[in-house]
Amino acid sequence: MIEEKALDLGRLIGQSAEYQALRRAEGDLRSDPETVAKLDRIQTLARQVDSVVAQGQMPDEATAQSYEEAVHQLELSTIGQAYVVARANFEKLMTKVNQLIAQGMEKGVTSKIISL
Questions:
Q1: What confidence tens digit (pLDDT) does each residue in 1-19 have?
Q2: pLDDT tens across 75-96, in order?
Q3: 10 Å Cβ neighbour count for 6?
Q4: Which DSSP string corresponds to 37-77?
């Protein structure tokens, strides 16, 4: 029963305006060559930073600044802004869903009725 309810919830989330907007924004990111180049640059820099941090060191100032600038440039683009807004709206939806699940769990703990 829990699995069925989880599938239903997933289906409803997938049909939500917030999720659909996020998917469209992700598609727009991937279909624009300039944005793809920005994303590739961000990923390359992120791997460099992760590698240095994994060795217990801090990234050099130039790499850190390049990463921040690349992210900033993406966020300033129209496509990047649309993605950031869509992502934030979807995250708000998921936060609300998780809060409601937690409330339901608390009610389940105190309920004397077992439902299957």
A1: 899 999 999 999 999 999 9
A2: 899 999 999 999 999 999 999 9
A3: 11
A4: HHHHHHHHHHHHHHHHHHTT-PPPHHHHHHHHHHHHHHHHS
Distance CA 4, CA 13 (A): 14
Six-digit token pair at 74? 């993406």
What are the structural domain ranges in the chain?
A: 16-87
Phi, psi of 56 (to 5 degrees): 80, 20
Which token pair is 51?
Answer: 């590698």
State the DSSP code for 16.
S
**Best CA proximity match to 90, nearest among 13, 37, 27:** 13
3-state helix, strand, coil in the chain (%, to 5): 85, 0, 15
Rounded to 10°, the helix 2-15/78-110 angle is 150
Q: What is the pTM of this model?
A: 0.76
Report helix, strand or coil for 22.
helix
Residue type, 26: E
Amino acid occupying residue 88: A
